[in-house]
TrEMBL record:
Protein name in the entry: AraC-like DNA-binding protein
Source species of the chain: Paenibacillus qinlingensis
HTH araC/xylS-type domain span: 1-74
Domain of life where this protein originates: Bacteria
InterPro entries: Homeodomain-like_sf (IPR009057), HTH_AraC (IPR018060)
SMART domains to which the protein is assigned, alphabetical: HTH_ARAC (SM00342)
Annotated SUPFAM superfamilies: Homeodomain-like
Short name of any one Pfam family annotated for the protein: HTH_18
Keywords, alphabetical: DNA-binding, Transcription, Transcription regulation
Length: 86
């Protein structure tokens, strides 16, 4: 199959190219791991195929507008507030 054809058909179906989809899926996995695990950023980066923590941080900030550490802290604070509410 021609790569250009694949990109075009994929974009028509998903409104993004395959690399954008892969990046989006990786960022969603990073976000989920930050919310539900105690893994360090380097461990998450490796498990999500992002190479290193620096690149993960750069891509996460670009996608979500805050760094992974701040995101994790915000999620935990929200969880604490939720469970303490009457």
């Amino acid at each position: 199959m021609n790569p250009n054809y694949l990109d075009r058909v994929f974009a028509e179906k998903f409104h993004m190219n395959p690399m954008q989809m892969l990046r989006e899926l990786r960022m969603k996995k990073v976000r989920r791991m930050l919310e539900t695990s105690e893994y360090t950023l380097p461990e998450i980066a490796v498990q999500c195929g992002l190479g290193d923590a620096s690149y993960l941080t750069q891509q996460f900030f670009k996608r979500f507008g805050l760094n992974p550490g701040m995101y994790r802290q915000q999620v935990r604070l929200n969880d604490q507030t939720y469970y303490k509410s009457p």
